[in-house]
Every structure is written in structure tokens, then in C-alpha cells.
Design a protein that fits this description.
The protein has about 475 residues and is mainly β. It contains no helices and 24 strands.
């Protein structure tokens, strides 16, 4: 059973709520009141105020036809597609937004209905800007759909790269992770700004050990650096960023770090070569260990930088070459060759200097070859110079070559700037041990004379720098 109440007019005492059957006017609420619909209720017939109903439950991933009064989220990550506009009448409104920020890669095409127009032209419009959102209102048949709102800015929540591992220091908006031994660079989240996920890094391998018995200086460990241009520090001349394969774009995963040990010095007696240093590794980047310096009984060794040649005229009257650098080859080069050995009196050089004043040469460094034997000065070959970078906020030289030996009273070869160890006086000077390369610089070890060992190479280092806020 139902009941019906019919009246011509209902009015409260304040005149706030009026239903007047005769005037065809219904007034709900008084000025300043808020009208609320019950939960689950809906309204029709109140018209629009220039906005749309956003279709959050129907993300568009393929060509579709829009409806008046609706806004759409278009996901073009899987490929470009088209939004067909409805047949427009004055006051119709349609909006669309780039859901996955991929319009710049996969465009969204807007197509008018039949002979209707977009901005006065019966032609398609193409949205090709990352994060773009537009609103079209149909004005009339002359101009058709007019774009009343076009946002080419993409307002998103800002996230930054977050990681752990090594010794962490902070420089302004940047964090610096320094690994002086094996470890893991563990990335837990990446930046929402893709260029910031390309990290700056320095990877230096272990230096080679110095040779024994008027041996050659050890070659420096390979030096490889990339400086992301957004990072405010002064890189070395060997910045490899311009060559794309050198760049490392990190993801939320773990990156094992290998820090190469320095090679042992050549053991006495017998004129033995020093051992090569070990590689250092970060992600796809490997720096090669420095080549060991030659002993008088052995050839020089190639490596990140090559070991220096020994005084070895007895086995090579024309003088032996230093070990090759940048082995294996990368661009820019990770190191240089060792110095070329002396050429004493013998079949290949009857007018050369006497054997009593023979010397050995320096190991190669990151930016210069090892010094050659030079008869015009009473000194052994110097280690090649390393490279200086401020990736840790302090200008620091790495990867200097080890110095050679002078076998009488002349000066031993100095180590190259960047941790290279100096050579020692030769047998007539007491057979002092060659100076070892500095730890965590990749410096080559200095050469020695019998009965002392060559200096050990310095261990390497890995440094990673990125924006964290």
C-alpha cells in the first residue's frame, strides 16, 4: 500500500526551501547553504561548469571514441593510438592526459568527427609532448573544437636515487660512496628524473709491482672515470661520459664492487719482473691491473698502464720496449706504456754508454708514458704521471707509474704523481727495496736492484657519486 501527498506549495518559515508547482521553479536551500546528496544518490540536469568526469576506471590503451563530458587517461606505453572526438554541439567538452608520460615516444592522435573541425581545420591533431594534457570545448561549426587548456608541464612526485655501500659522504645534494675494498653498491630506489640515474664514477685498478735487478717500474692500474654533466665537480681529462658505452645507468638492484689489489714486487735475486695488479670492476666497467715492471731476465708486461723496461742490454742490444698500456683497449685510454730500456755497449750499439751507468725506466701512468733511460742525466726513468679528479670533492691524483733504478750513484726514478713508488738505488747503492705504490691509488711499484725486491703496486679504488636530494 502506498500513500501520496500532493500540495501546491511547501515553504518553511524562513523561506529557505520552496517547491512551487504553479511557477515551475524549485528553490532548494537559502543563500550560503550547502546542498548535500545522500550517499549513493546522483544528480542530473544541473549542467556543467567547464569540467569533465574523469574515467579513472577505464585507462585507454588503444583507439577509442570519446564522449561529451568525459576525461580520459591515455596510456601509449605500448604504442601510439587515436582518440576519436564525438559529434560536437556547442558546449560539449572532452579532456585527455598522458597517463604514462610517453606521448613524446608514442603519440596520441586526436581525430574530429566527419567534417567537423579542430581549431578551424578539418584535420587531425597530434599530442607529442611528455606528460601533456588538453581540454577541448566545441564552440561552433566555424572553429569546431577549441583547445581551452593545454598543459605541457608534467607535475609529478619527485623521487631520488637511494643506495648503500662503501664509505658514504655527502657534498651538497650529492652522495659519494668510496670503496677501498670489495663491497656492494646496493640501489634501493631510483630517481624519477632519468638523467640522474646515470652515476658518476671512478674505477682504478691495482698497480703493477716494480721489477728486480735494475728492473723497470710497475705500471699504474687502469684509470676510468665518467662524470655526469649534472654533477658539480672537476673531472680528469679522461672523463669518458661523451662515449655512451662508458655510462652506467643504475636500477634498483645490487652492484658487486671489485677493488683490485696491487701486484707484488719482483722477488730477488735474479732480475725478476714484478707481478701485474688486479682488475677493479663496477657494473659494466672494468679497469685493467697495471703491468709489472720488467726484471733483467724478463720482458715488460702490458696492462692498464704498462710496466717499464729493465736494463736488459745483455738480452736485447737495441733496448727493450716498455709494456703496452691501455690493454685491453678502451676509449678514452685507461693508461700508457712503460718506458723504453737503455742500449748499452754491445753489438747493437758500439758507441753507447758503458754498462756501469745503465738504468731502467719508469712504468706508465694514466696520462703519460713511463720515462725512458736518458744518457744526458744521471737518473733513472720516472714513472708516468697519473690523473687528477675531484670526484670526492678534493683534487686527488691516481694511477701514477713506478720509477726505475739507476745502478750507480745517480738518482732513482721518481714515482709518477698519483701514488707511483720511486725506484731504488741499484746494486752499487746497496740494493735498496723499491718504494711501493700508495694504497688505494693504483700507483705502480718502484723498481729495485739485487738483492732487494721491487716495490709492490698500490691497491685500486672505486668511487660512485650521484644526486640524492
Amino acid at each position: 500500500m502506498t500513500s501520496t501527498i500532493k500540495v501546491n506549495n511547501v515553504q518553511n518559515q524562513c523561506g529557505a526551501n520552496i517547491i512551487n508547482e504553479n511557477s515551475n521553479t524549485i528553490t532548494i536551500g537559502a543563500s550560503g547553504d550547502t546542498i548535500a546528496l545522500a550517499s549513493g544518490a546522483s544528480q542530473t540536469g544541473f549542467g556543467r561548469t567547464g569540467t569533465v568526469d574523469w574515467q579513472t576506471g577505464s585507462i585507454k590503451t588503444a583507439t577509442f571514441t570519446a564522449a561529451n563530458g568525459e576525461g580520459y587517461f591515455a596510456n601509449t606505453s605500448g604504442g601510439a593510438f587515436t582518440m576519436n572526438l564525438p559529434a560536437g554541439t556547442a558546449g560539449n567538452i572532452v579532456s585527455v592526459v598522458d597517463y604514462t608520460n610517453t606521448f613524446q615516444t608514442n603519440n596520441l592522435t586526436i581525430t574530429p568527427n566527419g567534417s567537423q573541425k579542430i581549431g578551424g581545420a578539418n584535420a587531425n591533431a597530434v599530442l607529442s609532448t611528455e606528460g601533456q594534457s588538453v581540454t577541448f570545448v566545441y564552440v561552433d561549426d566555424t572553429e569546431g573544437w577549441k583547445n581551452t587548456m593545454d598543459s605541457t608541464s608534467n607535475v609529478t612526485g619527485r623521487t631520488f636515487l637511494t643506495a648503500t655501500g662503501g664509505t658514504i659522504t655527502t657534498s651538497g645534494d650529492f652522495k659519494i660512496h668510496t670503496f677501498t675494498g670489495p663491497g656492494t653498491f646496493c640501489v634501493s630506489s631510483t630517481s624519477s628524473n632519468s638523467p640522474e640515474n646515470v652515476v658518476s664514477y671512478l674505477v682504478v685498478a691495482g698497480g703493477g709491482g716494480g721489477g728486480n735487478g735494475i728492473g723497470g717500474g710497475g705500471g699504474a692500474g687502469g684509470f676510468r672515470e665518467v662524470k655526469n654533466p649534472i654533477t658539480p665537480y672537476t673531472a680528469s681529462p679522461l672523463d669518458g661520459y661523451p662515449t655512451a658505452p662508458n655510462r652506467v645507468t643504475v636500477t634498483a638492484t645490487s652492484f658487486p664492487i671489485t677493488v683490485g689489489a696491487g701486484g707484488a714486487g719482483g722477488p730477488a735475486p735474479g732480475g725478476n719482473s714484478g707481478s701485474s695488479g688486479a682488475n677493479s670492476i663496477f657494473s659494466t666497467v672494468t679497469s685493467a691491473g697495471g703491468g709489472g715492471g720488467a726484471g733483467t731476465s724478463d720482458a715488460s708486461i702490458a696492462g692498464g698502464s704498462g710496466g717499464g723496461a729493465a736494463y736488459n742490454g745483455l738480452i736485447s742490444p737495441t733496448g727493450a720496449p716498455g709494456g703496452a698500456g691501455n690493454t685491453p683497449p678502451v676509449s678514452p685510454p685507461q693508461g700508457n706504456p712503460g718506458g723504453t730500456g737503455s742500449n748499452p755497449i754491445g753489438a747493437g750499439n758500439p758507441s753507447g754508454p758503458p754498462c756501469a751507468s745503465t738504468t731502467s725506466t719508469g712504468g706508465g701512468g694514466a696520462t703519460a708514458a713511463g720515462g725512458n733511460w736518458n744518457s744526458s742525466r744521471p737518473a733513472a726513468g720516472a714513472g708516468g704521471a697519473g690523473a687528477t679528479t675531484s670526484i670526492n670533492d678534493t683534487p686527488t691524483a691516481y694511477a701514477g707509474g713506478g720509477g726505475g733504478v739507476y745502478n750507480t750513484s745517480g738518482a732513482p726514478g721518481p714515482g709518477g704523481a698519483g701514488g707511483g713508488g720511486a725506484g731504488a738505488p741499484g746494486p752499487s747503492g746497496g740494493g735498496a727495496v723499491g718504494v711501493s705504490g700508495t694504497a688505494n691509488t693504483g700507483g705502480g711499484g718502484g723498481a729495485s736492484g739485487d738483492p732487494a725486491n721491487g716495490g709492490a703496486g698500490g691497491s685500486g679504488i672505486v668511487i660512485i657519486r650521484y644526486k640524492f636530494q
